[in-house]
Amino acid sequence: MPLLVGGHVADRPEHYAWTSPLELAGAGVPVLAVHGTADEAVPAEWSRRYVEKVTAEGGTARYVEVEGGTHFDVVHPGHPVWAEVTGWIHETVTGEEQA
Predict the structure, then answer these.
(1) Are the CB atoms for 61 and 30 separated by under 8 Å?
(2) Does the predicted model carry a pTM greater than 0.70?
(3) Fewer CB within 10 A of the terminal residue: the chain, N end or C end?
(4) Which SUPFAM superfamilies does its entry note (predicted)?
């Protein structure tokens, strides 16, 4: 992160705020937050809080927790959760639940 935002959090706290979805305006689109319980990079609590923020602001959001999933498992099309992700996309785009 220091390379991305130009320093460490102690030196550039305002830059880190730019990278936090909790500090930014709502997405304006439906949100699916998929988070693994074994994520080694980002605490699952952050995704849960983001979903709470979006819904509190009147948006649409769903949180899916993947037991044992790591940071990259949840975005890998071969992972079992991918069926839920694609089902959510279908449902969101068409308004119809997938069988």
Answers:
(1) yes
(2) yes
(3) C
(4) alpha/beta-Hydrolases
